[in-house]
Amino acid sequence: MTESQKTQTQRNWSVPETEVVQRVHQRLEADGSDVLATIVDVDGNAYRRPGAKMLLDDAGDGVGSITAGCLEDDILRAAESVRGTGQPELVTYDLMDDDDDVWGLGVGCNGIIEVLLEPLTPSYRSATDAFTEGRDVAVLTVLSVHGEDVDASDTDSPLAYGDRAYYHPGEDRLSTPSDDDGASGDGGETTEADWPIDVLSEPASELAGRGRANVIDLEVDGTRLEVFVDGIAAPAELVVFGSGHDVGPVTELASKNDFRVTVVGFRGAVDLAERFPDADRTVTTSPGTIEDDLEMGLDDRTYAVVMTHNFVDDRLAVETLLDAGVPYVGLMGPHERFEEMIEEFDAEERTITDDDRSSLYTPIGLDLGGGSPYQIAHSIVAEVLAVHNDRDPRHLRAREGHIHDRIEVEADPTPPK
Amino acid sequence: MTESQKTQTQRNWSVPETEVVQRVHQRLEADGSDVLATIVDVDGNAYRRPGAKMLLDDAGDGVGSITAGCLEDDILRAAESVRGTGQPELVTYDLMDDDDDVWGLGVGCNGIIEVLLEPLTPSYRSATDAFTEGRDVAVLTVLSVHGEDVDASDTDSPLAYGDRAYYHPGEDRLSTPSDDDGASGDGGETTEADWPIDVLSEPASELAGRGRANVIDLEVDGTRLEVFVDGIAAPAELVVFGSGHDVGPVTELASKNDFRVTVVGFRGAVDLAERFPDADRTVTTSPGTIEDDLEMGLDDRTYAVVMTHNFVDDRLAVETLLDAGVPYVGLMGPHERFEEMIEEFDAEERTITDDDRSSLYTPIGLDLGGGSPYQIAHSIVAEVLAVHNDRDPRHLRAREGHIHDRIEVEADPTPPK
């Protein structure tokens, strides 16, 4: 590899999650030699959580990361094997033992990591289409099937190891790959009726909504199934009101932290797309038509930063956002300015309620003490992340329990008939 | 302007503070048409603090920002005037009145901002040399001189409006511009003896060390002086131990947040400079020779992130850092892994003391809940910023008092003779 290739490889490893999914989306129609690696399970602690993805092409380049780097060489070799057989493989890395094996010494994360490697087929479009269109989705993969007797692998279940389906929570609908999609795997084709959707829909909805992944054990008609449910949440939306140059670093950092960013300028703000190249969308609006101009729903998964530096525009944006029930409205400026704004709200009989106040974060940002445009933006995006993830933004060393909350999702084994 | 020029201008406005000073350093020997704008005083609230800088060239381009954008057009005009006269000017922007003037409506920050505009001369090298060599410095500028009778401007003081000196805390030494430096200003040349160094050294040291700026009122032999003391702290040092690809985003974000970043790889780690282009320095080291290989002092202004993902290397790095008294040692990995490390320290009779524990941040980072490489890096750099600025990293809306702590520095009016 040349030096610039090395730099590029390095960069690809640490791209935002959203970029990994977008890259998968782009490569669906490639020559079929790409392999998708996904962390299925972690026992103990690891750098990445279940659901973390890496796309590997046949030149040995990877986009995304499933460890901090130590396992990547071995994963490239495993991908080569998957490419050869055309069949998915589950590979287990035991990093528990610090003393006597190469992984333990190299990674020292005290965890066992299970990785699913599979040839990327067009059937996966069902997942990436949902993501790019702003819908949550869960990718379901059968990891094992057993009869009532644990040793017997002969069952009546139509599902087999490697079978795949996509669950779409909004429509409560499963889609299954067909031969047209270039589907691969031992299990051949399945249909929607083959999957216990009544048992899986609840955990799949929850994991998809939170963008988390888990292995679900379930028992259906005497057959025990292990299904990997890989929830891919639509990116959280961040709407930034403002067009000053302080908007630039907020947009850049939010985008790198996996938010889909819309920059909204007031009153003929021009060249927004050129000035804020990291924004996914830019909109020019006027007081009174904000919601119409936005052309997007403002809901409980929208986060908003208000930094127009214009008192009147700020107030109108805040009012629109609070009326829409947005859970995070960060308002730039000192507390005194917000007090003035409250007086104006009172004068117009739009009283700020306790609910409004719980969504309003002003002065905006975490208290990190920085004063440069980047430092201010860093503290803003840190706050949005913490609110989005429902965290108390203290030092992690002060947190009780695990760094990543474990999601315990269980399928109800006796669904209503 | 073309679109790409607009994007460039936008980017220049929001560069890190360190880049503004570096840009000033580069432009010292330019054609002399550059104008340096510095916020001298803020009454009320404003986007930037005193000391914020913007360098304006005669093509109308600016690097750095002193507001979020609304005042920049007017500042460009003021710079044109300074360029014409060759004399420094103090310009005041009153943003207090929200109702009846253009600034109030546009900025709404409830503040009065005073900006010093001056032709950039080679004399300023005294400041930027210090910065690039890692030394703190304070730039002193006389804003006014009065006799005992307030109305009388005739005094015996050798100092006059616009006079300039540079204070170097480490050496307790003033340097003054000479004609050779292309110095400008009404007051002509001064010498070190003209400046009340015994009165100024204490506040100038404190402001330089903290990178803060303030106007100091002092009275010397019946003469009242107003001196703007612009403290420029050497960049804080962040040393990152590790060479996995998760080091990339930490390096990038720390650099944008004004840290000078050194990446330290163990045992023949190669291509570090190519792989981490945002690092200011890269070093390859071995256990036992860390401090020698670093070729920099580890002291109370060094912050360290330990993320080698190798248990042995991590422990050696942590030991070196704790022994050197570094105030922040962030260690990646779960708490259980740290407990194992403590056992090894105990076994080697290097007990971890309470002091050690107060410097150790593990698990590293703020609790923001993100799991992607960028989100992890964001939480790490947010924690380093908060510790560096001595802040409790909660939501700013929960903070009592001002967002920026006010530094009250007073010169002792009766210094020891």
Automatic annotation (TrEMBL), chains A, B:
Positions of the UniProt region annotated as Disordered: 149-197
InterPro entries hit by this protein: MoCofactor_Util/Proc, XdhC_CoxI, XdhC_Rossmann_dom
Record-linked Pfam families: XdhC_C, XdhC_CoxI
Residues in XdhC- CoxI domain copies: 31-94
Domain XdhC Rossmann: residue ranges: 238-384
Bias-annotated ranges (Basic and acidic residues): 165-174
UniProt name for this protein: XdhC/CoxI family protein
Organism: Natrarchaeobius halalkaliphilus
